[in-house]
Write a structure and sequence with these properties.
Layout lengths: L14 H4 L20 E7 L10 H9 L9 E4 L6 E6 L1 H6 L6 E6 L2 E4 L4 H4 L7 H5 L7 E6 L37 E6 L15 H10 L3 E6 L2 E6 L7 E6 L1 E2 L2 E3 H14 L3 E4 L1 E2 L9 H11 L3 E5 L18 E6 L3 E9 L4 E2 L15 E6 L10 H4 L3 E5 L5 H10 L4 E5 L17 E4 L1 H12 L5 E11 L27 E4 L3 E4 L6 E4 L2 H18 L5 H10 L22 H4 L6 H4 L4 E2 L7 H7 L4 H8 L21 E5 L4 E9 L5 E8 L4 E6 L2 E4 L5 E10 L10 E9 L4 E10 L1
Parallel strand pairs: 6-10, 6-13, 7-10, 13-15, 15-16, 16-24, 19-20, 20-21, 21-22, 28-35
Antiparallel strand pairs: 1-3, 1-4, 2-3, 5-12, 5-14, 8-9, 11-12, 17-18, 17-23, 19-23, 25-26, 27-29, 29-33, 30-32, 30-34, 31-33, 34-35
Helix pairs in contact: 6-12, 7-8
Length: about 725
């Protein structure tokens, strides 16, 4: 989910506590009255031995045979994402269904939550050269956005310069009667249970925002309250959009998610952008994981937000290895409001409210030990002064109202240590700024050193060139994955902090923050690569993004930092920060075919039924060559190391120069020996494959005391390319 100006009164920061909403099995809705016990169940069944259904009506009729006679209980009849359907049932009816021939399982659906003028430039995209020029701005690629709908009249979705939809497109538009679709929005459907039959208008702004990040058209003079003015554009501004509404008021039902995947696969999308999720859960019981697997079987890359549960360890969601899991970073733009205290120290903060007439003079500075909560400030003590408030995860707008009602001159909000250096630009109700935890600590230390502390706030407007960008945003969910710790997650990070993009009137544009904003950045990048390499698989595109990602910041060339202002771990950044230009020409890729995941799923310990639900075919794990997680041909390594030596293989495909040679460079994690055989790979043709073996064992120097995890990397380097794979090691 993202945060924005219009949402401040209802939901506010700081991020970590706001997004701790739990996901659990639940009904999409209760029916009321005599049907109040009905829940929406997702029902898996076996295909009939001779069951080939040419018509949707025939398939639905077969599904109806499992339901109570004479009652309208069917919600969805699925064709592409699973063998089964969604229906409203009582617990007793679901139990009775178990006796019917062909029944496999029935589970209550889960509920999921919704987890830019400058960001294309920050990613090195411009119309004159590079990937935008080489990919023709993503022309002809179709990005499906599964979210809260869209406001089709927004200028970001105008179709000036857009081509006609590709011939393969067979989707439909439920805006037709209202004239909402064009050559930009080529399809729009509503799968949100409570508003079915209505056009998929966006009721929160979230879907409008994410869609415009992925593929919004060029809009000049975009800004928020006069800040960050420039030309707004999505990452793939000539790509088409297909909209699938699955959420309302921040909640998204599992049955609706599956129905949207089902439709998107049939419609002909190339990339799916899903800024929705929950915490890590078994893949066979995860609507997004199940739907995404069906999508990649058809060559569709699925990009998903990692979740906003950071910086808590092991909080990452959408962690199936066939999903591109995206964490959030800052960009090098800030809407600056700096604090200068009486001893001369200056601290940069942020605020969307930039009053032009605020005095430059210093004011008396006072501290509220009660977080500026209602009833804690006395006007006689704070009138005309600057009030320093500690953040406590409650609404910053509420704090501003309390301070403003006490007739203070201004407010400084200091982050908690958990939020650290991640500052947010908000539309405050009085002159105010949000500063980092370290800045807040130094301001309080200064206040303790003098009997007459003072402070001034300078509203400096839009500043480009923050030297430490990108940094990992505090809320960005962290690994390791709970469901599959042998797969390093998140995969990559992208811009997700204070992102300007389309918004319903009257603002037109708004700034939001969240992994919800990072995800469509990567969806757009994937669309650009798909345009340049239409024959690449979803795994190939994902590999290209991961192995070329940046691990150093853009200005200083130092390691990317997290919110503590220390180098970020691989569980925060994955492979690193997306570099679109390099991703388009990775040299080597780690490809994975859909059936390659079956031995991996068996290796997770899933039973035949559970694997079959995901694979959309009957699987007998006893007949599959089950593999450990680390044996999957993934572009990263996440291992648990005991005393035993471990060996794993990887296969790379040459997509660079036909004749090329690569040599391995290894930065072994402390306390770990990493060996690679062979150390050189020689290619003579394009698409040639080479396999290498990696050996992991404890080094003679022993384990670094006090550390459960250590990290390093290996990379294959040629004269023109470098393909890097991060390594995470857990000692046991």
């Amino acid at each position: 989910m993202g945060f924005g100006v219009l949402q401040i009164m209802a939901v506010l920061i700081l991020f970590v506590l706001i997004f701790m909403a739990k996901s659990s099995p639940a009904s999409a809705y209760d029916q009321g009255g005599g049907e109040s016990k009905l829940k929406t169940y997702i029902v898996h069944i076996k295909k009939p031995e001779n069951g080939v259904f040419a018509e949707a009506e025939d398939l639905e009729g077969w599904h109806m045979s499992f339901l109570p006679v004479g009652q309208e209980r069917m919600v969805y009849s699925y064709r592409n994402v699973l063998t089964g359907f969604a229906a409203r049932l009582t617990e007793e009816e679901a139990k009775e269904m178990e006796a019917k021939e062909g029944f496999v399982s029935a589970r209550p659906e889960r509920m999921y939550q919704l987890h830019t003028t400058h960001s294309p430039s920050f990613l090195g995209l411009n119309t004159r050269s590079g990937l935008w020029k080489g990919s023709n701005l993503g022309k002809g690629v179709i990005i499906g956005v599964m979210d809260s709908g869209i406001i089709p009249s927004h200028p970001s979705f105008g179709d000036e310069g857009m081509p006609f939809p590709p011939a393969k497109w067979i989707g439909s538009c439920e805006f037709n009667k209202t004239g909402g679709c064009n050559n930009k929005i080529i399809g729009a459907r509503n799968f949100q249970s409570r508003s079915k039959g209505m056009p998929p208008f966006d009721d929160t702004g979230h879907g409008t925002h994410t869609a415009s990040i992925a593929a919004g058209n060029f809009v000049k003079h975009a800004s928020v309250l006069g800040n960050a003015e420039g030309t707004a554009a999505g990452i793939a501004p000539r790509a088409h959009l297909a909209i699938y509404k699955i959420c309302a008021n921040g909640d998204c039902a599992g049955s609706d998610i599956l129905a949207a995947f089902d439709a998107a696969i049939a419609d002909g999308v190339d990339v799916l952008s899903v800024s929705v999720g929950q915490k890590s859960t078994p893949f066979y019981d995860d609507a997004i994981a199940v739907g995404a697997f069906a999508a990649i079987r058809k060559g569709i890359l699925v990009s998903c937000s990692a979740g906003n549960y950071g910086p808590t360890t092991a909080s990452v969601g959408n962690d199936a290895p066939w999903i591109l899991t995206v964490g959030a970073s800052t960009i090098d733009r800030s809407i600056r409001a700096s604090v200068k205290i009486g001893n001369g120290e200056k601290f940069d903060g942020e605020s969307l409210f930039q009053p032009a007439d605020f005095p430059s003079e210093s004011f008396p500075l006072v501290y509220s030990p009660y977080f500026c909560r209602p009833g804690t400030l006395n006007a006689s003590e704070v009138k005309g002064k600057v009030v320093l408030c500690d953040s406590d995860g409650k609404s910053i707008t509420e704090k501003g109202l309390v301070v403003n009602n006490a007739r203070a001159a201004a407010m400084i909000v200091a982050n908690t240590d958990l939020v650290g250096s991640t500052t947010v630009a908000l539309e405050h109700v009085l002159p105010a700024t949000d500063v980092s935890y370290s800045a807040g600590s130094r301001i309080k230390a200064y206040m303790s050193s003098t009997s007459n502390p003072t402070a001034s706030i300078a509203f400096e407007g839009t500043i480009i060139g923050e030297s430490t960008a990108p940094e990992v945003a505090c809320f960005s969910a962290r690994g390791p994955s709970l469901e599959t710790p042998g797969i390093l997650k998140p995969d990559v990070i992208g811009p997700g902090m204070n992102i300007l993009a389309a918004w319903p009137s009257p603002l037109k544009f708004n700034m939001l923050s969240g992994t919800s904003m990072a995800c469509p950045h990567l969806s757009g990048v994937a669309a650009l690569i798909k345009r340049s390499h239409p024959d690449w698989s979803a795994a190939a595109i994902k590999s290209a993004i991961m192995t070329t990602a940046d691990t150093l910041n853009h200005n200083k060339g130092l390691p990317i930092l997290d919110q503590t202002e220390n180098p970020a771990s691989v569980f925060a950044i994955g492979a690193g920060h997306v570099n679109p230009l390099r991703a388009n020409d990775p040299g080597l890729i780690y490809d994975i075919q859909p059936d390659d995941y079956i031995p991996y799923l068996c290796g997770l310990g899933y039973n035949d039924t559970q694997v079959s639900l995901i694979a959309l075919r009957t699987v007998k794990c006893s007949k599959e060559s089950s593999i450990p997680e680390l044996q999957l041909n993934y572009p990263s390594f996440s291992i648990t190391l005991q005393s035993k030596t471990l060996r794993f293989q990887r296969t790379v495909t040459n997509v660079g120069k036909p004749k090329s040679s690569y040599e391995v460079h290894i930065a072994a994690p402390p306390g770990v020996y990493v060996g690679v055989k062979p150390r050189k790979l020689h290619f003579t043709r394009e698409n040639q494959k080479k396999t290498y073996t990696v050996i992991f064992k404890r080094s003679k120097s022993g384990v670094i005391t006090g550390k459960q995890y250590v990290q390093g990397f290996l990379k294959w380097v040629s004269a023109t390319h470098s393909a890097r794979s991060p390594i995470a090691v857990k000692f046991e």
